[in-house]
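CORE FACILITY INTAKE
Project code: CF-77B
Contact: R.S. (postdoc)
Sample description: multi-component assembly, two entities in total
Requested service: structural model of the whole complex
Turnaround: standard
Below are the sequence entries exactly as provided by the requester. Do not edit them.
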Amino acid sequence: MLIEKAIQAAQAAGDLPAFEMPTIEIRPPKQAAQGDYACAVAMALAKPTGKNPLDIANAIANHIQKPDFVSAVEVVKPGFINFRLNESWLQQQVEAIITEGDRVFQLDTFKGKRAQVEFVSANPTGPLHVGRSRGAMVGDTIARILEAAGYTVEREYYFNNAGVQMTNLGNSLRIRYLEALGLPVEVPASDNTTFYQGEYLKDFARDLVAEQGNSLVEADWQPFKEYAEKRMFGIIKQTLARVNVSHDVFFNENSLYDDGSVTHTAEVLEKAGYIYRSAASQNPGENQPGEHDEENAGKGVATWFRSTALGDAKDRVLIKSDGNPTYSLPDIAYHINKLNRGFDLLVNILGADHNAQYKVVQYGVEALGFDPSIIHVIIIQLVKMVRNGKEVKMSTRRGDYDTLDDLIDQTSADVVRYMLLARSPDSHLNFDLDLAVKQSNENPVYYIHNAHVRCAGIAREAAKQGITDDGADLGKLGAAELRFLRKALELGDVIDSSAHELAPHRIAFYAHELATVFHPIYDEVRALQPDIDPATQKARLRFYRAAQVIFKRVLTLMGMSAPERM
RNA sequence: GCGCCCAUAGCUCAGUGGAUAGAGCAGCAGUCUUCGGAACUGAAGGUCGGGGGUUCGAAUCCCUCUGGGCGCACCA
C-alpha cells in the first residue's frame, strides 16, 4: 500500500514512467543490519521502465510518506528499499499485545467468510493409528489458522459405516463374542485379512456379554457391527480430544443414498453426456484391447464416467456391473453437497495413499458444472515411525500397530502435535520415537514450552515479592527486548501466509524461532534482581507479560497447552 | 509404463524469484552454582542429487536424467 502509493506519486511527478503495477512484497530481510522490512520491487521494475533499479528505488523512496511507525527508509545497493521500525512505537506494542490478550493477532483478512476443513475421516473400523493422525494435526491446525485469519470454520468428519470392512468388523466382534461366552469358535490366524485382531474387540465382546448375555448367539454380523461402530467412534473421539481435536459435523456417507443424492448425481452426469455403459474391454481409454477380457468375462455391464474428456488418464467406473456404486460416485455427490452449503473455502486433508482418488472427484465436480477452485486438497505424505534408527512397520488390520493413543501415552499430547505438525505436508515425515520419548533439550517442544514457563515463573515470583507492572514506562525497554518484539510482530504475517498457503508447519517453525530469540534475552534481561531500578523493573515485567501472551497464542494456534510450570 | 511427492550441513528438516542458502540435534571449544539449566556463547560443517534452459537475479520456475516414497481395482 505504502509503496504502491509512492510509485503512483512518483509517476504523477514524472519521476517514473507509466507501467502496470506489479505485485509488491514486503518482508523481513535475512540480516538484521538490512532493516526490519525490505522491498525488492525496484529490481522487478528495471525491465518495464528500462531504468537502473537503484534510481527507481530512490524515486520510490522519495515519494514514500513515512508513517509514524517507520523511523527510516533506506535505499541500498542493487535496489532494495529497507524500512526501519520506530523504536518507541515498538515499545508501545507491549501494551497493544497485553490488551488484545488471547486474541492477539486475530486478523480480519477473511472476515465474514466461511471455510470448512474435512479431516481424519477414518471409517470406524479401529482406533486411529499414527499414519492417520498426521492428517488430524494438520487439519485441525489449518482450521485454527484459518480462524485466526478471520474465517468462520467448520470441522467435518466424513465416514462410511457400510461396506465390506465394516462387515468384517461385525464378524470379528461376533467371533470374539462367542469366544467370550466360552463357546467353541475358531479364531482366524493373524494373517487373515478379513479378521481384525485388535485387543479392543475382546474388550467390546466382554462388555457385550455383560450387557446382553448370550442373547446374540444366533445373530449375524449386523448387531455386532452396530455395537462395534458405536464403541469405536467413542474411542476415536476420545483419542482426538486428547490432542485437542474435535469435529463440528460427522457426515455419514449413507445419508447421500438416503436423500437420493447419489442417484441424482449419476443422473445429472448422464444428462451432461459423461456417462456410458460397457464392459471394461470396450473402454475407449488407454486400456489395451483384450487386456481385461478374461477377468471381465461373464460380468455384466458397468456404468462409466468419461473422465478422459476432462483430461483424466482413463475413464472410471461409477457403478459396478453388480449394480453397486464404487466409492467415486458417493464421493462426488458428497463434494457437490459441500459445494452447495455455501462455503467460501473447502479444505480436504487426504493421505498420500489416496492421491489418485481426489482427482476423480475433481473431474466429477467439473463435469457437473461446478467451479472446483474453492476446493483445496492437501495431500499429506506418509509417516514413517523410526526407532533405534530403524523403521517400525505398521498395519491397521493386524494388532501390532502403534495407535495414536499409545503414542500419546508414551510421550505427550503436545509432543505428538508438534512432531506431526513441524514438517511441510509435502514432505515425508520420520517420526523419531526415541527423540519424542526423550524429555531433553533435543526435543523442541520443551524448548518452546520453557519460554512460556519462564514468563509465567517471573510473573509468579513478582507477585510473591509484591512487585507490580502497573504504569510501566516502556521507554525503559532496551535493544534485547526490541529484538523480541520485532520477532513477535511477525506473527501476523506468519498467520496470514500460513492461511493463504494452507501451510500450518510455518507456525511450528515460527514458534521455535521465537523461543530462540527469547531465551538469550531471558538470560540477559533480568527483571527481579535487587540492583535494578524500579522503573526498569516494571517495564521488564510488563515486557515478559506481553511475551507470555504471544507464546500462549502461538501454542494455542498449534493446539498445544501452555504450561506455567514444568 | 503412468500420476503425485521428495532429494539442501554427519542426522532430522526450513527456505512465499531477490542481498553472504538457514535452524535444531550430534560432534568440537567455552559460559553458568540460576526470577526453574529442559539455558546461553563461539568456531566448524554446503559444488542446494546430475545436466540443460528461462531471468537483471534460480535451492525456488521449465525440460531432462538419476535415486527414493506412495498410488495406479467393477476395494473403501
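Facility notes:
- The first strand of chain A starts at residue 26 and ends at 27.
- Residues 56 and 235 of chain A are 63 Å apart (CA to CA).
Invoice: internal transfer
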